[in-house]
Amino acid sequence: MPAPAEQLDIPTKAKRAAAARVYCFDFTREPELIAGETLDTPTVPAVSGLTIGSPSVLAAAFDGVQAGKGVKVQVSGGTAGTVYEVECRCTTSGGATLVSVFKLSVE
Description:
This protein has one domain (12-106): Sandwich (Immunoglobulin-like). The protein contains one helix and eight strands, in the order E-E-H-E-E-E-E-E-E.
């Protein structure tokens, strides 16, 4: 019998429906960054019901994540009582594509 697939621990973050907040995707533990590659070209796809700003690689430490090791993006909107999934894809200087996801619970 094959072993069960490894389950990903997807963090949940919260916001009020009327709030516009900046969130951070943490890529610190990715092997490519540990090996010295850098983050390049982040994208955060549209999520129905949310307004997603332009993502950027951290130029300074933010939310406990070192500069260059994460991506920040502003998120607003949403319907109270709804949980959304927000995803960030980021290529690295070595050509890898990294993906980070969080759930956003709107209150």
